[in-house]
């Protein structure tokens, strides 16, 4: 008997915010259960209506053990936000991740202006159950 793992997909897209919400740092995604699918990492992607400089944007992340009943803002050193050099580089798509030990997380994006947009969440490195097959 051999042991094989399902390699079909190592990612799961989870809807973040609704479309065309204000990207002012107050429109949070729903609480995302990072244990739901065995995901080992989480990336948020914000797509906004107009270009913004990397120096003008920021992410607000919150974490919770109990689905948001009690939560705290994640410290800046735990937020992974790749930035372009120079920071005056502009884009309409920004992404961020975190290093968190809490089960539930959510995020909001501040575009530094009057932009609207949407945040999508991607759970990555999903762990699947082994699939046992008969054979050599």
Textual characterization of the structure:
This protein has 136 residues and is mainly beta. The protein has one domain: Jelly Rolls, CATH 2.60.120. It is built from no helices and 12 strands. Strands 2, 3, 5, 8, 9 and 11 form a 6-stranded antiparallel sheet that branches. A 4-stranded antiparallel sheet has the order 4-10-6-7, with no helix packed on it. The protein has a two-stranded antiparallel ribbon with strand order 1-12. A hairpin with a 7-residue loop joins strand 6 and strand 7.
What is the secondary structure topology, with strand pairs?
Layout: E1 2-4, E2 11-15, E3 21-22, E4 32-33, E5 41-53, E6 58-64, E7 72-73, E8 79-80, E9 90-98, E10 104-110, E11 116-124, E12 131-133
Antiparallel strand pairs: 1-12, 2-11, 3-11, 4-10, 5-9, 5-11, 6-7, 6-10, 8-9
Portion in helices: under 10%
CATH fold assignment: Jelly Rolls
CATH architecture: Sandwich
Mean pLDDT: 82
Task: Give the overall shape.
Answer: globular
Question: Which runs of at least 5 residues are low in confidence (pLDDT < 50)?
Answer: 1-8
Summed up, the helix count is 0
**Beta-strand proportion:** over 45%
Alpha-beta classification: mainly beta
Give a count of the beta strands, DSSP E runs of length 2 or more.
Answer: 12
Could you name the CATH class? Answer: Mainly Beta
The gyration radius over C-alpha positions equals 17 Å
What is the element string, with H for helices and E for strands? EEEEEEEEEEEE
How would you characterize the largest beta sheet?
Answer: 6 strands, antiparallel
In whole angstroms, how far apart are the ends? 7 Å
- Please give the domain count: 1
Multimerization state: single chain
């Amino acid at each position: 008997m051999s042991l094989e793992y399902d390699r079909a997909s190592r990612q799961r897209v989870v809807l973040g915010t609704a479309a065309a919400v204000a990207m002012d740092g107050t429109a949070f995604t729903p609480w995302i259960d990072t244990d739901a699918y065995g995901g080992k990492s989480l990336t948020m992607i914000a797509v906004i209506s107009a270009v913004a400089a990397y120096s003008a944007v920021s992410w607000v992340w919150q974490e919770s053990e109990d689905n948001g009943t009690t939560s705290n803002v994640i410290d800046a050193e735990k937020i992974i936000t790749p930035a372009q050099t120079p920071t005056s580089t502009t884009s309409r798509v920004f992404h961020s991740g975190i290093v968190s030990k809490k089960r539930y997380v959510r995020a909001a994006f501040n575009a530094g202006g009057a932009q609207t947009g949407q945040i999508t969440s991607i759970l990555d490195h999903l762990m699947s159950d082994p699939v046992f097959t008969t054979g050599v």
